[in-house]
């Protein structure tokens, strides 16, 4: 079942305006730093200036004596929390080196916190930082995967033979034999630079120990309040019930790095409890550059084997992944490992990961999460193969796509939970054709030819991807009918701009058969719903969504059961209209939702519930999907290169997108466009530099380019909808697809623009100097090969 | 089914030591005034010095200008909360005059708050009270039911014809005809004085508006946090979700008055939100005397008709009930109305209530709640009838008791929810005989005869009762398996010393089949469980108890379902031992509860739950009993009167008690003994005086007698156990039975002691002056009738 239109029920599928926007657009949003916590102290962290060093001594006495300073703690002062932070995704072969909140002996990257100062204000705390004397014994560092994997590399973590965190191979078919036998084989090495999340709101933690409830309340700009609570409970060796984690509803962006747990998040609540006073720390932008996790750095050695007709026979990809100084989890490289084949039917696959430790800030997911790199490896080689055969790259793709009747499609690899990698649904050919049609592919090729004839460097790039999303383990939704006849829907998930207050109210409205204005959605507070996972991996619509649908249907049943008893009729004969439940055939017989709430709560006399009345109109459903759903997309782009400056002008960009059934098309479009901007950054702008000692060279936006609204080009969106059979909403994920193929598509287009010169683009981002380097100035005198 | 031994499972029925006691006995308990709320302001209330007055003007300017005063508000300043507080139990015929938090126009009793001062400390606030100038136009007041019901009585509330709040009659059979035809008829008028709850911790409220969650957090020494939340939501016109009410676990006694809602509870949170700063008010003892609700005052005109064989043919009781200045609910007089017939099979009943408003603090439930008065009316008349026939009063009772095979027994009256008044189970004859046996009734009669022969005033009294308890509408229990493998059980109910942390852990241990030390019970926080009723009417073991049993059984099922999947076996083959679930036949195969919690929460890889694993190990059950269960008891007492001082010496006191199945015999005994002390107070000590203008004359323990441990006599307890068929625990209520028959039993004994003189005891409490009055000194010269 594929449609090209979103499924529209009453509210599901409607482009409802975002409830969040009024407060956001009027400056009335509450971010972590806006929280009113009377008497709150503020913290600042002493951070390592070295990428690798032994801590010889730390003298905090002068800082501690400074007026306004409440306390200074090093790792040695806080042995209670000197535990490793468990990585999120692990593997039996992982050499796990988790970080501790404040290391006492060694620092492994520049920016690693070694002490915390708490003072009456951030100003005082920052001044006191300068008084903390740390003596370091500086050690040699490695600041690239290449350096880390070199034979005589310094060891990031002692006690090991090398810097490898994990080395795993997955195969499907017989890739070695197939490659040997392939009529055509091409190889290339691609490097993808680091890139960050760069949320507008940086990380931040505030905490208050509430002696009245003996509860530690932690406000955290996290994507996963329950994960933070679980991790704190583990680190503090406390029952999780003693910790309440709240993600403010207006967290200003997440993008992955806020789905991780950082040392600061363990230190701040601990000292707040020690001091029995609220303590807050908000990361500044410089800290964000050095201490917030990044992603992307990978080096791919990829080889493709294919026949004369353009059928891919084998793919082999060996890639290095930069894990950073510690292991926050293997989610990113494991995703890269399995994302390689993408939309293509490839009988023989070799995909091999070598993850290594380096002396840089640890890496973890950033929107796209390991997929953009895999798509670069695959889609760049598809273009190379087409070029090799003199075939249109679109035609090459058509010959290799998994077909619409092949789902569920087993790729032949293994998913990272150990199950067979299986695509649930999709329609890649339709997606390609719809994208090309909107892109006006043939017309673009004509324009390209005309431009070339004028000596202009115009190129066209295509890139396709699949995205495993809607992951488990589960997500929950809890409904309650309130005294005023409104329904409160509580999600464990914490949004960072996705519009949960709107879209889950839409789902709830359809589930309840009620008007949306009677429904309120609240999120991100572990005290409101006990279990949850969080917002990452484009997972919530496909997990919290079905939970919200099912819990709402249960709640409707309960509501009508009470109304049935109150109206002395059968539930089947009732209709909810506005804030009343009425007998469908006789609307003069009705009862208000407010009265239903009262009847089921305090009862009529406050003594017994009337016969048939249920106590406690609350429902909770946790939905655990069997496995990941697969969204997909195909991007098409035309670029023109300025040969003198190396500037890339995006002439036309079309995104074809399939995230299954859509809850709110406007919000999905917003996600895709936001993701696209992120992809543009990875493709052309973002690149944090580290020198060979591991010293970061770009720690402000003066040294680090992000695309702004001026740089992000216009884009056209087209959608198809292949519902996932894995959940009753048929939903997949929409949060990352916009990002994933952009570097590959733009690189393909740039290389296509430079094809007349045979210039190769193998390093991302594609910055003007790289293009200028790739072009020999001799070729620019009007006698270049495309004139020939 | 009746047993004389408690049912013993593993933990249910065991006398487990109270978990609460260590902190209570070591002074480590946290009461409301101990809560740490940094920067908290304190409030004090301006209270009316008049029992009835029109407020002419209030000038708060001088108080407001005082340094340290944050604000002063009158009723006129807070029109938003100028709503009537809804009475708890109502009736269609009730002329409802609910109170408003701060009245703006009239005051109706001495102590009624008219303004609130908030200052940096209670000292400042109290000083500022003196600067609030209130001009009153004093009006005539009524301070007794007699005065209120007099023909030309001043009206407590204008706009009515009289001071009657409700006048209702219930009958069974044909009482008028039966009474006319009865061979013997006796009449008497009994008066019962007011009496209070006198909890060691007075009332108190603290509130903090939490701008971070937009939630108003209210700490309240209440028996019913959910009722407080519901009432605040109604008064503030807010969704209940915006208000979190927490009853600290160590509320120092409730006894009924803290199950009500008071104006102060509406004012404090409101001004805390206005000021955006915590505000606290703790009632002082003088305020407790004038502003906390009391109970008891009733005047009973009772007539009994019986035949020569001692069979009761008819009872007719018309009683006046003092509602106080406003109607907090009709629970007390409605209970009196239906409690009259007690343990006796009476074919013809006339029970008639005239509740009236007076200019005294409103009344509501105090431990016993309307039953002690009904038992006085009934049991005193039983003794009079026996005396009239020259029959042993025990023998008279035996002839009239409802028999063990007559349950469920329909009394012929109506319960206050409109259903037929039905006793679920009991064994009154066994209860009587067991009590008499322990009391050694015949021996006591011999001793009495011997004492009389010596000229000593010794008397024996018996009194029996039934107590409707275990009332709905419902109560809830929520379980959660925590990360550390322990189970958290959350109750809506808030204890005030009943030992919930212990007894519900016992129930949970049996329900889960787990060790009690792995179970923690938390109570009294509306944020932890959304619906609940509270602790009153001896209801929780029979409502929260079954909810805890059933939710625990569900949780055990879920736990074992997860363990089954983890151990690849069937749940039926598993045993929980300590903190592990093991295969019964092969204990080497086991999994820890901690691992089960982890598997069901974050999963093995943090990606998908393993097959068969349930997400979210939480269960919630609300148990709604069909109707009230009936506990019962029989008390026997021997007293000796000092004729010179009028002092009563309790020679022997035996309590026979049946509250169905017992969860923790030691705790039940504690409840019964505590209740007994309360009954002793009502029988012999407690009496608040008001002058004819409604001015209270006893506002400290210098003027008001409470029995201390020196005054409460030793008592012996015997139990029988007739399980209630209305809930799976077979539980009834145990919190009030100790109190109910004590005034009647002691009055019967005292009158028996004075019987040789024909002296009559018709007024409670029986204080020494009343006894001295009742005895003519001429009778004390050794020539009295018992020598004759």
TrEMBL record, chains A, B:
Q: What molecular functions are annotated in GO for this chain?
A: iron ion binding; oxidoreductase activity
In short, the EC number is: 1.2.99.2
Aldehyde oxidase/xanthine dehydrogenase a/b hammerhead domain span:
26-140
Record's keyword terms, sorted:
Molybdenum, Oxidoreductase
Annotated Pfam families: Ald_Xan_dh_C, MoCoBD_1, MoCoBD_2
Has UniProt tagged this entry with the keyword 4Fe-4S? no
Q: What is this organism's lineage?
A: Bacteria, Bacillati, Actinomycetota, Actinomycetes, Pseudonocardiales
Whether Transferase counts among this entry's keywords is: no
> What InterPro entries is this protein classified in?
Ald_Oxase/Xan_DH_a/b, Ald_Oxase/Xan_DH_a/b_sf, Ald_Oxase/xanthine_DH-like, AldOxase/xan_DH_MoCoBD1, AldOxase/xan_DH_MoCoBD2, AldOxase/xan_DH_Mopterin-bd_sf
> What name appears for this protein in its UniProt entry?
Carbon-monoxide dehydrogenase (Acceptor)
Q: Which domain of life is it from?
A: Bacteria
PANTHER family cross-referenced by the UniProt entry? ALDEHYDE OXIDASE 1-RELATED, XANTHINE DEHYDROGENASE
């Amino acid at each position: 079942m594929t449609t090209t239109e979103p499924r529209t029920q009453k509210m599901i599928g409607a482009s409802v305006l975002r409830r969040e926007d009024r407060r956001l657009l009027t400056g009335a949003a509450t971010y972590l730093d806006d929280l009113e916590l009377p008497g709150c102290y503020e913290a600042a962290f002493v951070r390592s200036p070295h990428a690798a060093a032994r801590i010889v001594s730390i003298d905090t006495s002068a800082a501690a004596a400074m007026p306004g300073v409440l306390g200074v703690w090093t790792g040695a002062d806080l042995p209670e929390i000197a535990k490793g932070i468990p990585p999120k995704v692990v593997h039996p072969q992982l050499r796990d080196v988790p970080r501790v909140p404040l290391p006492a002996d060694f620092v492994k990257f520049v920016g690693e916190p070694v002490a915390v100062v708490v003072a009456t204000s951030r100003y005082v705390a920052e001044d006191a930082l300068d008084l903390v004397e740390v003596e370091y014994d500086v050690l040699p560092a490695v600041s690239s995967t290449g350096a880390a994997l070199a034979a005589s590399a310094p060891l990031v973590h002692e006690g090991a033979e090398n810097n490898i965190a994990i080395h795993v191979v997955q195969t499907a078919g017989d890739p070695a034999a197939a490659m040997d036998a392939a009529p055509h084989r091409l190889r290339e090495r691609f490097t993808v630079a680091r890139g960050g999340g760069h949320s507008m709101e940086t990380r931040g933690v505030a905490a208050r120990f509430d002696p009245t409830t003996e509860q530690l309340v932690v406000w955290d700009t996290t994507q996963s309040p329950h994960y933070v609570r679980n991790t704190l409970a583990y680190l503090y060796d406390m029952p999780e019930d003693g910790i309440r984690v709240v993600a403010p509803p207006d967290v200003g962006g997440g993008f992955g790095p806020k789905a991780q747990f950082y040392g600061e998040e363990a230190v701040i609540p601990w000292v707040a409890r020690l001091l029995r006073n609220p303590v807050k720390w908000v990361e500044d932008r410089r800290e964000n550059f050095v201490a917030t996790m990044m992603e992307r750095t990978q080096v791919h050695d990829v080889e493709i084997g294919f026949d004369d007709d353009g059928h891919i026979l084998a793919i082999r990809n060996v890639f290095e992944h930069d894990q950073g100084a510690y292991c926050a989890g293997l989610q990113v490289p494991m995703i890269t490992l399995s994302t390689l084949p993408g939309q293509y039917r490839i009988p023989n696959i070799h995909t091999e990961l070598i993850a290594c430790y380096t002396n840089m800030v640890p890496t973890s997911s950033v929107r796209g999460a390991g997929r953009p790199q895999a798509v670069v490896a695959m889609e760049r080689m598809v273009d190379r193969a087409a070029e090799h055969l003199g075939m249109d790259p679109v035609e090459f793709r058509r010959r290799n796509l998994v077909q619409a009747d092949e789902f569920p499609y087993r790729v032949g690899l293994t998913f990272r939970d150990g199950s067979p990698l299986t695509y649930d649904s999709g329609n890649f050919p339709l997606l390609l054709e719809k994208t090309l049609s909107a892109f006006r592919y043939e017309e673009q090729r004509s324009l390209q030819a005309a431009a070339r004839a004028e000596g202009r460097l115009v190129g066209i790039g295509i890139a396709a991807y699949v995205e495993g999303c809607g992951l488990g383990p589960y997500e929950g939704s809890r409904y309650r009918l309130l005294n005023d006849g409104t329904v409160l829907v509580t999600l464990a998930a914490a949004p960072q701009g996705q519009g949960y207050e709107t879209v889950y109210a839409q789902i709830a409205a359809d589930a309840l058969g009620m008007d949306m204005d009677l429904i309120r959605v609240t999120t991100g507070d572990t005290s409101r719903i006990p279990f949850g996972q969080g917002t990452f991996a484009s997972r919530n619509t496909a997990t919290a969504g079905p939970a919200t649908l099912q819990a709402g249907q249960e709640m409707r049943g309960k509501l009508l059961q009470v109304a049935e008893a109150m109206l002395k009729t059968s539930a089947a004969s009732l209709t909810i209209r506005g804030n009343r439940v009425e007998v469908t055939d006789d609307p003069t017989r009705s009862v208000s939702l407010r009265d239903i709430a009262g009847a089921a709560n305090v009862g009529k006399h406050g003594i017994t519930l009337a016969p048939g009345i249920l106590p406690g109109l609350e429902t909770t459903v946790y939905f655990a999907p069997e496995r990941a759903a697969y969204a997909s997309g195909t991007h098409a782009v035309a670029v023109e290169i300025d040969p003198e400056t190396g500037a890339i002008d995006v002439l036309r960009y079309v995104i074809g997108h399939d995230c299954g059934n859509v809850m709110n098309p406007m919000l999905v479009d917003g996600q895709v466009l936001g993701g696209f901007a992120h992809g543009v950054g990875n493709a052309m702008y973002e690149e944090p530099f580290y020198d060979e000692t591991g010293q970061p060279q770009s720690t402000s936006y003066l040294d680090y380019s992000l695309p702004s609204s001026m740089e992000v080009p216009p884009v056209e969106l087209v959608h198809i909808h292949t519902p996932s059979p894995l959940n009753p909403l048929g939903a997949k994920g929409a949060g990352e697809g916009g990002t994933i193929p952009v570097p590959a598509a733009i690189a393909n287009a740039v290389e296509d623009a430079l094809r007349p010169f045979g210039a190769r683009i193998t390093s991302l981002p594609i910055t003007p100097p790289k293009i200028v380097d790739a072009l020999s100035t001799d070729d620019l005198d009007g006698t270049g090969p495309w004139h020939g």
